[in-house]
Design a protein that fits this description.
The chain has 146 residues and is mostly helical. The protein has helices spanning 15-23, 61-85, 89-121, 134-137.
């Protein structure tokens, strides 16, 4: 049995498009404005469409997913190299240490952008104007401005 459809009167926000735009570090709403003002600092609002992002709460999710993705790439490669060539440990450290750091740094911003896009598309954490706590979130911005 299918769940009944409920009309909310709000336009649908496409999840895949929002996450793809976030992955490209662009505004999930318009796809044109920058999503980050610094490496991991999300802009307060999009310079192009005005969508507000100061209330997003990606928190610890981006590092968690980056560790998960990086581990799923590096560990199988390290095991394959070990089984095929049995190099000394110093060579493993020389190969996999820099690769792990490079992957983590390269993935952190796109993953955070995708998570912000996911939150935006699902109207989570302040992206829903009908949510009762949204007014209180404005008081918690980093720069202290309302």
């Amino acid at each position: 049995m299918n769940a009944p459809l409920v009309f909310t009167g709000r336009p649908e926000r496409p999840l895949a498009q929002a996450m793809t735009r976030g992955w490209r570090c662009r505004c999930p709403n318009c796809g044109k404005g920058r999503l980050f003002r610094a490496f991991l600092k999300v802009v307060d609002r999009c310079a192009v469409c005005g969508e507000e992002y100061f209330h997003q709460r990606a928190d610890d999710a981006p590092p968690y997913f980056v560790i998960l993705i990086t581990g799923h790439i590096v560990v199988p490669l390290a095991l394959a190299v070990e089984v095929a060539f049995s190099p000394p440990y110093w060579l493993h450290a020389l190969l996999w240490g820099p690769l792990t750091i490079a992957l983590a740094l390269a993935l952190l911003q796109p993953v955070k952008g995708a998570i912000v896009g996911w939150q935006w598309a699902n109207r989570m954490h302040g992206f829903d104007p009908d949510y009762p706590d949204d007014g209180m979130l404005a008081d918690r911005r980093e720069d202290g401005k309302p």
